Amino acid sequence: MKRRAFLASLAAAAALPRASWADAGSPAYLAAAKEVSGDYSLSGISRAGERLFSLPLPSRGHAATAHPTRPEAVAFARRPGTFALVIDCATGATTARLTPPEGRQFNGHGVYSADGATLYTSEVVAEGSEGRIGLWDAARGYQRIGEFASNGIGPHEIRRLPGSDDLVVVNGGIQTDPSDRTPLNLDTMRPNLSYLSPEGAVLEVVELPELWQNSIRHLALRSDGQVAFAMQWQGDLAEPVPLLGLHRRGEDVILAEPFDAEMFAMKGYAGSVAYTQDGQQVAITSPKGGRIQAFSAMGVPLWSLARADVCGLGPCAEGGFVATDGQGLVARVIDGRLEPLSSASVSWDNHLVALG
Amino acid sequence: MRLPALAALLALASPAMADVPEVISKHVLPGYAAFSKASADLAAAAQTDCAAEGLRDEWNATFDAWLGVSHLRMGPVEEQGRALAIAYWPDPKNIGGRQLDAMLTKADPALLTSEAMAQVSVAARGLFGLERLIYGDSAQISDAYACDLRKALAQDLAAMAATTEAGWTGGYADLVLSAGAEGNATFLTASEGRQALFTQLITGLEFDADTRIGRPLGTFDKPRPERAEALASGRSLRNVTLSLTALRAMAEALAQGLGEIPQTEAAFDRALDLAGKLDDPTFAGVSDPSGRLKVEILQQAIQAARTAAEAEIGTLLGVSAGFNSADGD
């Protein structure tokens, strides 16, 4: 453990009363961005869409995950990631820097255990892209305390099932060149969605044999445990395929087919997925197609909205969704309408991470 | 009133018309008007005589006109899947062909109205549905039902063209022209209107290089000449040429009043010159090494035009390719 991080965590522990998310201005979301200057950052965004704080990142970020109680977030580098930063969102200080073990790379996502004591990170073995879940001791300065297999190649997002410490991870199936992001196995890839125990035991695996070139990459969870997973099609773009799946432990997958008129609108790519707060709607975004498509939680298409370079997506407390785009817009999106909340001279990156 | 608003917005922009108004008044609106007119002529011709051979000229004229605007994938043409229903291609699983076969077998007279046709799957309709029924197997397309189906498909196509044109003149052009104005929820800043048009130019060039040419090219080990666009009517190369001509005009209009685009113009000229000299109307030559090389060189010339347009016009407009759309996660 780094001395500075240790001292910082001691200082945090000594502070009374303990800092809470309110001390960070109560952000509702976290999002990585590229600034006009070309620098990269992580921002806290309020419910009203205002940027509450912005902290520098050493290189391009991807997603983040928030500690369940402390105003602490971990910002992950874009894959192949060499860092994850633990940030005190109340003070803006970096309290720990996580570096993947030799020969491993972070894949942009992570999640805390329910009690906040353990951080799980999505990782690959650089050579071969075998998936690993890294375990870090979030109670004691983020020491590496273990790892287990993710049950596939190229894991991407990892989440925790609500009210449980069981994990759900999507293995995108794509092996990449260790030095960059070049895919190496698009003809033989085999993605899956895996439910894992906190010790790494495989509890259930979902595969889509007919859609084996549909890389399963992102997740949203409903409070009752329904899992929405977003996919990216690596096959012929002239073939329309569903990009959103819905699943519950022990049940069959529901594939959400868009309206006929919308079947190519996403250009085979879903970048983020989110439920509304009430869990009645689930939507996916495509920056490549400039689209948001929303479905019922049964997978029935409801509406879509055109918005260039849109990608980040989260629930809106007042109903509908909040979306971010590469032009710096934060907007509420409800029933196919766009209501701008704020605009900044930044490019919001792939994900809008909802807190709480 | 929509029309006066549009006229006023266009007038405000003159005499030094630049970029967005220029593109709309000189490229988009005339392009859709021409497509609308050509498809109406096709529908009228089909009403008079729906025999396949007699419709070839009008069908080709309609396809020509479509290529003037086929790269515009924003606004009215994107509503209700119109762009797909107008030109459903590529169709690797031959969904359109199979659905038309089923329609011919069933010969349901209730389908033969433009309202009923509007409910048919997008894959069976439009230019490619008509191509199958004009250039397809003569035994299959010579009966009376096929004749009626051509009539209904032509009417449906003309209706979609008219609705698309009306959508632009009756509101959507205003939205693009008033980008950034209070209450414009589609284009929140002035720059977003320019960005949207610029994106059409770039993705249009990508479609010509990667899809219209890239699909028949396949790989060196597995060329796929059977995947060429509009193979039955033999217009694969013509489609590329006309699309490039339209995209060149759009590039000129986008740069109008802002600056010179010499590299873009030179790259377009080179691509059009290569296309003009290519004696291979359906890219059948992709299967032999020397023929393949010529098609690859054309593809590279189009890619060079995209690169030049991105650099020169992107700089003039102060826009660039999207941040998130540029690559994956």
From TrEMBL, chain A:
<dbReference type="InterPro" id="IPR015943">
    <property type="entry name" value="WD40/YVTN_repeat-like_dom_sf"/>
</dbReference>
<protein>
    <submittedName>
        <fullName>DUF1513 domain-containing protein</fullName>
    </submittedName>
</protein>
<feature type="signal peptide">
    <location>
        <begin position="1"/>
        <end position="22"/>
    </location>
</feature>
<dbReference type="InterPro" id="IPR011044">
    <property type="entry name" value="Quino_amine_DH_bsu"/>
</dbReference>
<dbReference type="InterPro" id="IPR008311">
    <property type="entry name" value="UCP028101"/>
</dbReference>
<keyword id="KW-0732">Signal</keyword>
<dbReference type="Pfam" id="PF07433">
    <property type="entry name" value="DUF1513"/>
</dbReference>
From TrEMBL, chain B:
<dbReference type="InterPro" id="IPR018976">
    <property type="entry name" value="Imelysin-like"/>
</dbReference>
<keyword id="KW-0732">Signal</keyword>
<dbReference type="InterPro" id="IPR034984">
    <property type="entry name" value="Imelysin-like_IPPA"/>
</dbReference>
<dbReference type="Pfam" id="PF09375">
    <property type="entry name" value="Peptidase_M75"/>
</dbReference>
<protein>
    <submittedName>
        <fullName>Imelysin family protein</fullName>
    </submittedName>
</protein>
<feature type="domain" description="Imelysin-like">
    <location>
        <begin position="29"/>
        <end position="305"/>
    </location>
</feature>
<dbReference type="InterPro" id="IPR038352">
    <property type="entry name" value="Imelysin_sf"/>
</dbReference>
<feature type="signal peptide">
    <location>
        <begin position="1"/>
        <end position="18"/>
    </location>
</feature>
